[in-house]
Structure to design on (308 residues):
DNA sequence: TATTGTTATACTCTATAACTATA
DNA sequence: TATAGTTATAGAGTATAACAATA
C-alpha cells in the first residue's frame, strides 16, 4: 500500500483555485441534487423555477444565457418541467418567435415546498460555514462570475 | 422581444449558493482549460500533474479519491498523460496490484512551463478579486469541500 | 474477502450545425 | 439578415457492474 488515502484537500492544492472550484462545485451540486431528489428534479431545473418564480417574463434563450447553458440544452430542460406540470410555455403575442416560460399553480406550490425543505435541512456544505461566511462566499462567487461572462475570456 | 438579456447574476439568485457555484465553477474551469490549451491538456490532467509533482507517491486510486473522480475515470486520464510522455506508470514492488504514477522529465518541464505561464497571465476570474479576496475564497472553498466528502452527505 | 487497475455499457451533458418561423 | 425555438449528431463526462491479479 502506497500510503493512507487523503480525501481532504492536499496542502499543495490549497491555493489552486481551479482545483478547489472543481471539488467544491461537485460537492455542492451533488448535495443540492440529493435535496431535490424527492421532487424528482435536479439543480438546473430548480434554477429555472427560481428564475421564473416572480412574475418577470423569461424566454428560453434568456434563461439559457443567464444559466450559462446553450439554448439547445434549455429545450429538454423546459420539456421535462412542462411534462411534470410545473411550468407552461405561453406564446408571446409581441414576438411570435418567442415563448414566455411561466410557473403553473403546481409549479408555484412546488417552489414553496422546496424552499421550506431547504430551510429545514441546511445542506452539509453550508453547515461548515457561518452565516457571515456564507454571505461572504456568495459575494465572492458573484464577483468571480463577473458582470459579463463572454465566450472567450481568459 | 421580452426584455434585455442579462448575463450577470440576477439579484434574486445572489444568495442561491448552488446557482453561484454552477456559474462560477463553469467559468473558472473553462478559463483554466483555455490557459492550458497550448499544452494540449485540460484542468483534470493538470491536477494530476500537480498532485504528483513533488516526489510523493501516488497510486491511481488515491489520485481518483483526491480529485473526487471514480477510479475507472482515472484510467483514461492517466493513459492520455502517459501517451503524451508526461507521466509514467511504475510498478510498485511493495504491492504488485498498484502502480506508482510519476512525472517524466518532460512532465517536470511542462509543469514548470505551465506554472510560469499562469504567473504571467492572471486569469480573468481572479483579476476581479484582490489578492486578499483570492486567499479568502480559496479558504472558504476549502471549508466548503470539507475534511471528508463522503458519498451520501447532505 | 477486499482492493487495484481495467474493460464494457448505458446514460447524461456538451458543442455544433442546420432547419422553420418569425422579425 | 438576424433571432427564437427546435432537431440531430458526435464527443465528453459519469455511474455501474464485472473481471483478473494480488493482498
Amino acid at each position: 500500500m502506497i500510503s493512507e488515502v487523503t480525501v481532504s484537500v492536499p496542502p499543495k492544492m490549497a491555493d489552486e483555485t481551479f482545483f478547489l472550484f472543481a471539488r467544491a462545485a461537485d460537492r455542492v451540486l451533488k448535495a443540492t441534487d440529493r435535496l431535490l431528489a424527492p421532487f424528482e428534479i435536479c439543480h438546473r431545473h430548480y434554477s429555472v423555477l427560481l428564475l421564473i418564480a416572480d412574475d418577470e417574463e423569461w424566454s428560453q434563450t434568456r434563461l439559457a444565457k443567464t444559466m450559462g447553458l446553450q439554448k439547445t440544452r434549455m429545450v429538454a430542460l423546459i420539456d421535462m418541467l412542462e411534462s411534470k406540470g410545473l411550468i407552461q410555455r405561453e406564446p408571446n403575442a409581441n414576438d411570435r418567435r418567442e415563448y414566455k416560460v411561466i410557473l403553473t399553480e403546481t409549479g408555484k406550490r412546488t417552489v414553496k415546498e422546496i424552499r421550506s425543505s431547504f430551510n429545514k435541512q441546511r445542506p452539509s456544505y453550508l453547515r461548515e460555514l457561518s452565516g457571515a461566511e456564507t454571505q461572504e462566499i456568495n459575494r465572492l462567487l458573484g464577483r468571480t462570475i463577473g458582470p459579463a461572462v463572454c465566450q472567450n475570456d481568459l
